[in-house]
Amino acid sequence: MAERVEQRLEDRIPELEQLERVGLFTRKEIRAVLRKASALEYKIQRRALRKEDFINYIQYEVNLLELIKKRRARIGYSFKKDEIEYSIIHRVHSLFNRATGKWKDDVQLWLSHVAFCKQWNAKHQLSKVFATMLAIHSNKPELWIMAAKWEMETRLSSESARHLFLRALRFHPECPKLYQEYFRMELMHAEKQRKEKKEFEQAKMDLGEFNYSEEILNGEMARIVYRDASQKIKGVKFQLAVLSIAKLFDFTQDLQKEILESLQARYADDPLTWDYMARRELELGPLQPTEHTTKQKKVSEMAQREERGCAVFDEAVRAVPTEDMWKCYITFCLERYNRKTNSEELKQKRLERTLNVFSKAHESNLLSEALYKQWLQLLLDCNHSEKAVEVAEAATRHFSQSVEMWQLRLQVLIQLKRDDVTQCFEEAIKHVKSKGTLPLWTLWVEWSEGTNSKEDTEALYQRSLHATTPAESVTMKEMYLDWTYRNCGYKKVKRLFTSLCENRPFSLDFFRKMIQIEKEQESCKMLHLREYYERALREFGSTNTDLWLDYIKEELSHPQGKPENCGSIHWRAMKMLQGDLVEDFVSKYTLLQTGHL
């Protein structure tokens, strides 16, 4: 091993001598480089190789290259690159080759090599890297696309890019992304040839030796790719993706027309098809173009485009009366309404149209729960209070089991200060199953606190404890305890705490709240605090270290505390805590004893 390391270090000597001779590095820096290189070489020559050692070595060499680049710029010296940089670059390639040979499955390692090749413009080496990587990772379409794009955009070789895409499609015959990028590549190739031909014609050069096929110039290769793909890949999304690519090129009108006709013929029942056709109306220009357009004309023109789009949607909901179709229509209207405009007339027209579409979807019983929420929010924002109440009631009829829908209806009634809030709460609790009703009960008691008498609110709290599931009642107990202390005082909350402790489950916050209430009293009694801590530890003593530590702190700091109890508390904690919590408790207790906690 030592002989190999020495040989590699000797191979470095010519480049290091050049670095010193031309003044890029000092003698001291050269020695430091040799020491570091020697240490790194020994690590990658061991029998048990580690990936991190190779990565560190590569990173060191890359940093060295960057330093040389900065030093060259500083002193203005640009010669001897063959003897210095290219030697280091060759060594980095060798390191990458060894690493990727050992850890073939690490895609990130391959991509790092690719990035290095691109950074230092090693085109020939990069072609080899892509070839080896794709032979191993042929199951990853994104790598094929990366390689083909590099061939097309950097090496300007459409033939190589096409060859890579065809090979990739043999491995992934139904990959939409591969077909999309292949389609894009063929259109880019056609555009490139069109530009070349135009430049030759402008220069009045003879095109005899150049063969520009009219079919390729018109995008026929892309058409073939599209037709092949559309037979294998079903779905509107792929068709729309291909169409959006074709629209980027100004010579694809016929191709766009073919894709659009195929879309309408094969996917006439798909909401996305109608959605595209409606939005397409927004992009179409005016029927009679004018040279000078005023702001009023622009507004009028936009209104006409939106009307045409809505006409398409009106036809769509008649042809395909589904929930998804109405969702597309409403989403379109909401997007248009939310667009900024200085024209109040246009904004009002958009609002009326949106509300009208919501009403029609509701009448058809094809409005989803999420859209009901959006409708209600829009009505409230526009101060249509009575309509909002009506819609909220209809929504809860339609989704009578939905807690969120009832919650929304109740919030509307509370916001509008209606008299039938209590009646609506009762109706909601009757319709919704007990599991999951916690949001309704919390909303009800919060509303009652600010509206009803103390007696009514207390009765409601008591009722909620029996109506909710045991897990949900935990939250209600915390809220009940807090409300009682705020409104009825210490004695009442102490009796309530004792009463609530008769029925499990509890939360840690429930006990901590009572401890905090006791500590807020002028005559805070340690006897009571011990009772609360002991109750809490019975429930959470095996899983919470902080509770034990707080108990110990209380005994140490309270005027009525007994520091001699700390030993027994510590002993009990060590017995009760589970697993790693014991070690955590010991370390925290040590910090407490030394005054660092």
TrEMBL record:
<keyword id="KW-0698">rRNA processing</keyword>
<keyword id="KW-0539">Nucleus</keyword>
<dbReference type="GO" id="GO:0032040">
    <property type="term" value="C:small-subunit processome"/>
</dbReference>
<dbReference type="InterPro" id="IPR056907">
    <property type="entry name" value="UTP6_C"/>
</dbReference>
<keyword id="KW-0677">Repeat</keyword>
<protein>
    <submittedName>
        <fullName>UTP6 protein</fullName>
    </submittedName>
</protein>
<dbReference type="InterPro" id="IPR011990">
    <property type="entry name" value="TPR-like_helical_dom_sf"/>
</dbReference>
<dbReference type="InterPro" id="IPR003107">
    <property type="entry name" value="HAT"/>
</dbReference>
<dbReference type="GO" id="GO:0034388">
    <property type="term" value="C:Pwp2p-containing subcomplex of 90S preribosome"/>
</dbReference>
<dbReference type="Pfam" id="PF24892">
    <property type="entry name" value="UTP6_C"/>
</dbReference>
<comment type="similarity">
    <text>Belongs to the UTP6 family.</text>
</comment>
<dbReference type="InterPro" id="IPR055347">
    <property type="entry name" value="UTP6_N"/>
</dbReference>
<dbReference type="Pfam" id="PF08640">
    <property type="entry name" value="U3_assoc_6"/>
</dbReference>
<dbReference type="InterPro" id="IPR013949">
    <property type="entry name" value="Utp6"/>
</dbReference>
<feature type="domain" description="U3 small nucleolar RNA-associated protein 6 N-terminal">
    <location>
        <begin position="9"/>
        <end position="91"/>
    </location>
</feature>
<dbReference type="GO" id="GO:0030515">
    <property type="term" value="F:snoRNA binding"/>
</dbReference>
<dbReference type="GO" id="GO:0000462">
    <property type="term" value="P:maturation of SSU-rRNA from tricistronic rRNA transcript (SSU-rRNA, 5.8S rRNA, LSU-rRNA)"/>
</dbReference>
<feature type="domain" description="U3 small nucleolar RNA-associated protein 6 homolog C-terminal">
    <location>
        <begin position="307"/>
        <end position="577"/>
    </location>
</feature>
